[in-house]
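So, is this right?
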Amino acid sequence: MATLNLTFSAPINMSCKIGDVAYFVNTSTLGGFTVAGQTNLIGTITAITEASTTTTLTILIEGEFAEAVTTNDFVFFSKNNLVEIGSITGYYATTQFRNNSTSNAELHATAFEVEESSS
């Protein structure tokens, strides 16, 4: 399959890894503001090569307009949810419910929330 090499002179986000999916957005200036156009898929990042002043992403082309990316476009990535999301590990909790009154009471429901961490 065809690949595309994108070279950046500035450092890229340190959480960008092989297997992430790259996208680009055409940008333009309107009324003194930078505005974004349509989001376009580039493809899956297959290699990241870091040199002393540049970083090159090798991307497997999967998007219809992937080769239309230019130096004026905003390039970003998303994590692969199949790889990045795991099960809860290392957490343990206990609860104890006490009735402080002298009469009987019924507990109809309890709930808890879990939030995904980026780390």
About this structure: The radius of gyration is 24 Å. The mean pLDDT is 85. The beta strands are 3-8, 21-30, 33-50, 55-61, 74-78. The longest strand covers residues 33-50.
